[in-house]
Amino acid sequence: MIKQKIITITSTSLLVSGLAISAAFAQDANMPTNIPNHPRVDQVDQRIDNQQNRINSEESSGKITAGQAAQDDRRLQREENQVKKDEAANGGHLTQAEQRKLNREENRNNKDMTRQKRHDRQGKREHHENQQ
Q: Is residue 59 a contact partner of residue 66, using CB atoms and an 8 Å limit?
């Protein structure tokens, strides 16, 4: 009789634990990867939006070529994927370390785009001077 009670209590305990774990995983799977109004997420998302606007603007104005814009878009897409991955790992938030890392990457991207544009302008200037 006592063994049967122990087995019943153990079985019930395992069942409840299993249900609790299942519920936790289900809740985690349904957790949004981007929680609105989280300051670190908003700041990084805004920088990415600004970068995308810059790429589109410079391509449409002829400051960069379509190939350069495609390269910048791929670089930006990798960064967006990293943001989503980091957010998913932290329940829709970014840690300060992740934000710093992403901001450093954004700074590098901005410098690369500026160098790329400057290099393209120098090439056009040299080409123009050689034609004269």
A: yes
Summarised one tens digit per residue, pLDDT across range 67-97 is 999 999 999 999 999 999 999 998 889 999 9
Summarize pLDDT for 22-59 with one digit per residue, the tens: 555 444 455 555 556 788 999 999 999 999 999 999 99
Question: Which residue, 7, 28, 6, 9, is CA-closest to 17?
Answer: 9
Q: How far is CA 83 from CA 3, 22, 25, in A?
A: 53, 27, 22
Burial class (CB within 10 angstroms; exposed 0-12, middle 13-18, buried 19+) of 102: buried
pTM: 0.62
Q: Give the integer Cα–Cα distance in Å for 70 and 38.
A: 30
CB 40 within 8 A of CB 96: yes
Residues 6+ apart with CB under 8 A from 41: 34, 35, 83, 87, 92, 93, 94
Q: How far apart are CA 104 and CA 70, in angstroms?
A: 21
